[in-house]
Amino acid sequence: MTEIRLGRAYVPEGEGEGYRVYVDRLWPRGLSHETFHYDAWDKEIAPSDSLRHWFHDNPDLHWEDFEEKYRAELKENPAMKDFVASLEDKSVVTLLYSSKNEHENNAIVLANYLISAYEDKFRLCMG
């Protein structure tokens, strides 16, 4: 079973983060390719541009709707099969995001989706 962790792209890599996957569509502002450590960048599983723009227009009002809409995108996303397959042989995976909000971001939705849709393959680690 793969342990899923969450991490902010701007925080230096910590011990035990395992396989680090950046899950945003856009490169994290201000970070260089030389200093930002990640093992994979999967833009295909990030929220669509239209959903991302809609959410950022008013995140305080749109969080629950964003969760629902992004989960629907993930369910229909053909790239999910390859994404899940790329993680199955990893013991620890850290989903990296660039949002300032550590409690309401796409990586959290993705982690929860993986755990609920593939409960025999993934579990969340809070620590």
Compact summary:
With 127 residues, this protein is an alpha/beta fold. Helix content is 38%, strand content 17%. The mean pLDDT is 93.
List the helices and strands and how they pair.
Layout: E1 2-8, E2 19-22, E3 40-41, H1 49-57, H2 59-76, H3 79-87, E4 92-97, H4 106-117, E5 122-124
Parallel strand pairs: 1-4, 1-5, 2-3, 2-4
Helix pairs in contact: 1-2, 2-4
Explain what you see.
The protein is an alpha/beta fold. It is 38% helix and 17% strand. It has four helices and five strands. It has helices spanning 49-57, 59-76, 79-87, 106-117, and strands spanning 2-8, 19-22, 40-41, 92-97, 122-124. It has a five-stranded parallel beta sheet with strand order 3-2-4-1-5, with helices on one face. The radius of gyration is 14 Å and the shape is globular. It starts with a strand and ends with a strand. The mean pLDDT is 93.
